[in-house]
Structure prediction request, 148 residues.
Amino acid sequence: MNKRTQSRSAARLAAVQALYQHEMEATPVPKLIHEFHQHRIGAIIEDAEYADADIPFFDDIVKGALARLPEVDAAITARLASGWTMERLDRTMKAILRAGTYELIARSDVPVGAVVSEYVDVAKAFFDAREAGFANGLLDAIGKAARA
Prediction:
């Protein structure tokens, strides 16, 4: 994996964590971004080293997903099974889907396959194969619709 790919993967993981934190604590976006820049990205926390992330890419995903939240959530909700709502989704899964959906909608410079694959990898870090498959199917459908 080349350095740019690694730094983008790290940015995506950090963006999911930031979106999760925003969901949990309603941290204002400027404070959230600042906190990740200062204390999370590239830091060592509890012996886990956080890889150097593509900071502008991280910023774009977090700010963009939150700025376009109604559009992002509508794209996700439209593809949930009947009877499912955003509120029923696990908060980590919600953060993964929001970050991925934003990228699929707003970052046409990144191929759909790359976006889906990266966020499925993030899902695998937190969930079992079933949930990762759920993220895969949902993001793939959003990607096809967004880039049609």
Observations:
- The chain has one domain: 3-146.
- The domain at 3-146 is CATH 1.10.940.10 (N-utilizing Substance Protein B Homolog; Chain A).
- The mean pLDDT is 90.
